[in-house]
Amino acid sequence: METILLSQQELEETNQQLCEKARELRQSLGHLEISQDRERDALRKEVATLQQSVTLLQKDKEYLHMQNMELRTCSEPPGRSMRGREQELA
Prior knowledge:
Layout: H1 2-75, H2 82-89
Coiled coil: 8-60
Keywords: Coiled coil
């Protein structure tokens, strides 16, 4: 009988230790989920910033292209087309 009581006590202690470990693991998992959520939020913000930067760079590129076209048009002497200049260069 005493052996059974001793075994039962050991099992209860083991069960208590396992419950404590399970609680610690749940707590750690909770911390990891919070960290992942923060990382996801940070990545979303970074992606949004990069998308905005790309959009602005595309607009800048379009603007510079328009300016370049205007400068080419303004620098051409009256009555001369691009084709005429190409023929002179050849």
